[in-house]
């Protein structure tokens, strides 16, 4: 019985992931733009967003994002009320770090930073 429950959980998880991918592809087909909800497509959506930014906006992001990351890691995450909230904040910081690296790469590609 326990094995059936584990198998059902895996099937549901896989179905949900396939559904998310399908939704991403359907959105792209209709709008010719990556939605970015699924992790496989998130990086591409981020690249599109960064490439559409002005140089000023990109430099502003490069200046402000490290301060946001520091504030969350030093103050907000340790003061989180629950483990669930702490986990959500840690995930947010990880996403910000990935976005910061992508922004640095975009700025370097444009030649506005070295």
Order of helices and strands: HHHH
Approximately how much helix is present in the residues?
A: over 70%
Helix and strand composition category: mainly alpha
Number of strands: 0
What is the count of helical runs? Answer: 4
Give me the Rg, rounded.
Answer: 18 Å
Task: Please give the largest β-sheet.
Answer: none
Distance between the termini: 59 Å
- The global form is flat
- For the record, the count of structural domains works out to 2
Strand content: under 5%
Average pLDDT figure:
87
Note poorly predicted spans.
none
Protein model, in words:
The protein is mainly alpha-helical and 114 residues long. The chain has helices spanning 2-31, 39-51, 55-76, 83-110. It has two domains: 1-41; 53-114. It contains four helices and no strands.
């Amino acid at each position: 019985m326990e094995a059936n429950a584990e198998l059902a959980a895996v099937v549901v998880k896989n179905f949900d992931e396939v559904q998310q991918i399908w939704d991403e592809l359907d959105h792209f087909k209709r709008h010719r733009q990556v939605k970015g909800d699924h992790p496989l497509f998130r990086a591409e959506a981020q690249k599109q967003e960064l490439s559409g930014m002005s140089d000023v906006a990109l430099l502003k992001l490069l200046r402000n994002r490290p301060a946001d990351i520091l504030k969350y890691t030093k103050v907000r995450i340790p003061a989180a009320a629950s483990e669930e909230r702490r986990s959500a904040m840690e995930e947010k910081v990880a996403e910000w770090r990935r976005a910061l690296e992508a922004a640095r790469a975009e700025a370097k590609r444009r030649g506005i930073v070295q």
